[in-house]
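Practice set, problem 2.
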Amino acid sequence: MGRGVVFHKTKSLGLVRLCALTVCLTHLVGCGSSEEGNAGAATATSTASANAASAINGETIMQGEAENWLSNGRTYDEQRHSPLDQINLDTVDELGLAWYWNTGTKRGLESTPIVVDGVMFNSGAWSVVWAHNAKTGELLWEFDPQVDREWARYACCDVVNRGVAAWKGKIYVGTIDGRLIALDAATGKPIWDINTLLPDRPYTITGAPRIVKDKVVIGNGGSEYGVRGYVTAYNTETGAEEWRFYTVPGNPADGFESDAMREAAKTWIGGEWWKVGGGGTAWDSMAFDPELNLLYIGTGNGAPWNRYIRSPGGGDNLYLSSIVALNPDTGEYVWHYQTTPGDTWDYTATQHMILADIEINGEPRKVIMQAPKNGFFYVLDRTNGDFISAEAYVPMNWATHVDAETGRPVESPAGNYANDSKRVKPGPLGGHNWHPMTYHPETGLVYIPALDLRFDYAQDNAFKHAPKDWNLGTDFKETIPTSDPAELIDNLQSIRGFLAAWDPVSQKEIWRVEHATTWNGGLLSTGGGLVFQGRADGQFAAYRADNGELVWESPVDVGIIAAPVSYAVDGQQYISVVAGWGGAYALTSGAPRHKGNVLTEGRILTFKLGGEAQLPETQITYLNVPEPQKMDYTAEQRAEGELLFARYCAVCHGPGAGTVGPIPNLLYSGEDVHAIWDGIVVGGALAHKGMPKFDHAIDAKGAQAVRAYVIDTAKNTIALCESDLRVQYPELLNPACQMSVATTSGSAGR
C-alpha cells in the first residue's frame, strides 16, 4: 500500500480562513462519538463570509484569536494560556464529555491539537494525521505517511508525534522516519514530501513543526544513536530548503559551516566526537519573538551521553543542552545560553520555553523561561541571553546551585561517575521532560509537570560506537533491577511526580499537587482561573490556578501525557486533550503502571459545559505472570543474556524485561513466542510490527542467552509475588505481579 490519505467525506471540507474559502461548515454526527454521545442528527450550519476569510499567518498567530488554537503553544510566545473563561471556577463542575474519538492505537500520544475555525488537526503514533469537526468529533480525513515499522528501532522514546502546524491552507507534519510533509488542509492530500535527514544516520522526528515568516522549521531526534544535531527551515510553499543551522561542530578537518561552529569546536577537547555525531539534536521546543525577530531553539544531549568519552579533555561542548537564538530569516547564530555545560547526564534543554514580559526588581524585562531536565528553573533576558536567575524546582544532587555571576551550575562530586557509579538526581528523564508547561499572565505563575526520579550512572569502559543502537557511554546494566527485595521496594517508592506552581520572579514554589505516580500530562491554563492536566492514573483534572485546589476531575480509562487546549465554536468553549500513555518512561523505566493506568486504546477527548457523552465501559482482567517456559541454562548463559538485554533490549522492553508501555511485556511471553524466539530476535519475524531484527549484534547463541535471562527473571518475579512482601506492599507490587488487560465495549470512532 502506498503513502496516502484516507477519505471519510465525499464533500469538500471548508476550513474557513485556513483555506480562504467561502464555505458552509455542516456539523454532522459521526462514528457514534458525537457531541451528544452515540446518537444525534445534523446540527445547525455555520456560514463564513469570504470577506472575513484570511489565511493563517504570522499576524493571526501573534494576535492569538481566543476561539482558535493556531500554533503548538497557541501563540508564538508558547505560553499555552487560553483567555477563554466560560469554563471557570463557578461553572467547572458542569463540565462533561462532549465527544470522543478512538485513535486505533495503544502507542503513546503526545500531540497538541491545532484548531482553526471549528476544525481540529491532530497527529498520532507513526505520524498519522487526523482532521475532525471540532464541535462534533466527526472524522473529516486521515493521512497515513506509511512509515516503515522497522524505523521504530531508531526512536528512543516511542513512535510518538507532538503535533502539526497550520499555515495558509496547509498542514505540516514531521514523520518518525525523518520526512517533512505538507498536506492540503481541506482534503489531507500530500502537496510535498521531503527527506530532512543527513545520509547514513538514524534520525527521527517527533516534534511539532513551527512556522515563521513563510518558513516551516523542524529539528530532529536521535542523539543516542550517534547523530549530529541541526535545525532546518523549508519554504512553506515548495519545500525547498531555506537554511540549516547545525547545533554542534562536525569534523574540523572538513572545515566549518559558520563562525558559530568554528567557535563551538574550541569547546570540544580531545576525542573524535564527530564519529559518534556529537548529538545536540533539537527534537522539541521552539519559540519566536516577532518584535526581536529571534527564533529560540532548545538543544539536546551529547552523543554519547558520557562527556568523559565524548570529550575526554573537557570543555563545555557547545551547543549541547542550550537555548540558542537564531535569525529566522537566515538561520544565523545570534546568542546562546548553556544550561548544562559539558552535559554528561542527558540533561537536555529541549524542554518547553516560554516568552513573557515581567517585572523584576522594579524593571520590566523581556524574558525567556525554561525548566530543563537538569532541575533548575531559568529566567533569561531573551534580547541577549543574559542570565537573570535560576533555582532548583526538583530535588537534585548533581549540582549545588547556579552561580549568580557566571550563570553556570556548580557541580557536586555526587554527579561525577567517571571512576565509580553514582546515584544521581534528576535522572536522564529529568526534573521536567517534554510535557508542556503553561504561564498564567494573571497569576504570574508558571505551572510545571514535574518529575522526581533518580538514576544510577556508571562509566562504560568497553564503549564502542554502534551505528544502529544506543551509544550512551554509560553502563546500562547498572539500571537493571536487582533481585534484592529491599532495593526493589526502595526503587518503587522513589518514583514520584507532581504539579508545581512556580513564581519566576521570586524563584519559589507557590504550591504543589503531589500525584500518585510520575509521567503525567502537559498543562493548560485558562482565563477561568483554572489549570488543566491529564494524569498517568487515567484522570483528567482541573485545579485552581491560585492555590492548586482540585475542583474537577473525570476518569478517562487511559493515562494522559499530552497537553490540553481550549477553543470555542458557536459561542461554546471546549477543552480537548489527546489521551494515550506511552513515551520514554513507559518504555524504559521498567516500573509498574499505576493501578488506574490501564493500557487501553488512545482517544481524543473533548469536554464542554453540559456535555453528556459517555465513554464505553471498560472491563479489566488481571493476569498473573505465567509459569515460565522450560529451558535448561547455565548461570554464565543467564549473565550473558543480562548484558545483551541491557545493551539492546531494555530501551523498549524495560529494565528487567517488564515494560509498562505498549511494547510486549516479555515476562508474559507464551509458548508461541518462545517457539520462534530466534526468528524474532535474529530473523526479523515481527519486523512488520516494529520489532527489528538484531542480527548485526546478536546471533542465535546470544538470542538464547537473552531468552534464558527473560525466563530467569520471570521465575524471580513469581517468587517475589508469592512472598510476604506483596502482602506488605500491595500498592507497589500488585501492578508488577499482574498484567491488566482492557476490553472496551461499544467503541466509537476507529
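Problem 2, part (b): a different protein.
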Amino acid sequence: MHENRTWSERTKAAVVLAIIVAGSLTWCTVAPAQEPGAAGIISRDDLPKVLAKVNGKPILKEDVLSGLAAGAPITPALRRAIDQELIAQQPLPAVRLTDEQAEHIKRLGPTVLAYFYQKTIPELARRNPADVTEAQIDACLTENPKRFSRITGESRRRMAASVVARQQYAEAHGNWLKARLAGTEISVNGEELSPAVMELAVQTMSLRMTGSRQTLVPALFEKIKEMVIAQAAQDQGAPAETLANDSDLVKALLTKTVIEVDGHKLVLGNLRNWQAMTARADAVIPDGLLVGAIKEIILVADAQAQGIDKDPAFQKQLERSREQVTASAPGTSPSDVYYARQGLGQADVVVSAAELEALHQAVMQALLYNGQAAGPEALHAYLRTAKLSWARETNLQEVEVSDAELEGLHQAIMQVLLHKGGAEGTNGLREYLQSTKLNSARERHLKVLRGRAKIKLFVN
C-alpha cells in the first residue's frame, strides 16, 4: 500500500513529518562562496586593464566589471566573459530553416537594403517635432481649431508640433517620390500604367501619412484590378463585368499579377501578408502598401547601382537581421543561438520519469533525516550520481557538485515545503532538474572548447 502512493502523497507525508520533527530545514541554506579578503586579493582599481586573452583576443577589465555590483565576486564574472568569448569565436553550424524562415530570409535582403539606403536620403528622414518653430505651431493651431479643441496647455502645443513634423515629412517624402518616379516606366502584366495614377497614389499616401481624416480612394489598386480584369477578359473572350463579379477569380488574377518598374519585377502575391489582406471578397489593398512596394524596388535598384549592397556596414546589418530570423526567439542572445544550434538549447533537454523519481527519493531522504548529516549528504550524492549518468563517465571522482547547484536544489525543496507537495512545488523540482541537466551538458561542451583554446590569465 505504501509503495503505491503517488509522489505528491509521499511528499506531503514527508513534509508533515519534517515540520513536526524540526519545524524547518536548518540545512537548506548554503553560504555563497566568497572571494578572499584584503589579504588575499587586490582591489578592482589595481586590476590590469586586460584580465585575460582568449586565442589572442583580450578580455578587458571594463567589460568584465560592467554591471557587476560592488562587492560581488569577480572570478565568476571573468569565467563567464571567457566562455562568452570562446563561444563568439566558434563558427555557427549550419541551421535547418523552416520554409517560413527560408522565405523570410529570401525577402530580407532587398528590404534591409532599401531601409539602409533610405537613411542616406535627407528627404526621407523623419522630422523631429522639437525642430518645429513656435510660429509653425501657432499656424497649425489656427488652421485646425476643431482638431485641438479638447486639448489644453502644453499638451496642445506638443501635439501641434507633432502634426507639423508629420506634415513636413509627408510633403518632403511625397515630393522626392514624385520626382524619382518621373520618367520611370511602370507596367501591369506588360501594359503601361498611367503616370497620373501613380501621382494620385503618392498624393493619397502622403495624406495618409499626415493622419488626414479624408476618405481616401485606393486609386492605384482599383486601376490595377481594372487592368487585370480587362486583360483576362480579352484573353478569355468573356465580358469584363462577368469576370469582375467572380471574387475568387479576381483574387487569383491579382495574385499572379506582375508589376514591373524599370525592368524590376514584383509579383503581387509575394507581398508580405498578401493572403491575409485578400481574405475577404471585397478586400481593398491600400495604395500606401502598393506605393511602398514600388518605392522599395526603386531604392534597391538605386542602392545596387551605387554599390551600397557591397558596403561592409550594410552586410553586417543584413547578417544581424538574418540571425534574428534564425534565432529561437526575438532578442535571443548569441550564446543561446550558439547552444541551440549545438543541440544544447532549452528544448533539447528532456527529464525522464526515472530521473524525476530519483530526485524525489533523494528529497524525501533529506527531509526524513532533517538536521542530520545524512540529509544533505543524500542530495550531494544524488547530484553526483545524476551528473555522472549525464556525462556517461566512468570515474565518480571526476564529477564535481558546486555550491550553486546544491543551493538551487535547496531552494527548489523549499518551494515543495511552501506549497505542501502541490503541483507548483513538484514543477519547481522538475524545472531545477532540467536546468541543472542543461547547464551540466553546456559545461562539458565548454570544457572541450577551453581545452582547445589558448587562454592566458593576467590575474590570479
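Answer key, part (b): Residues 413 and 429 are 7 Å apart (CA to CA). DSSP finds 18 helices and seven strands in the chain.
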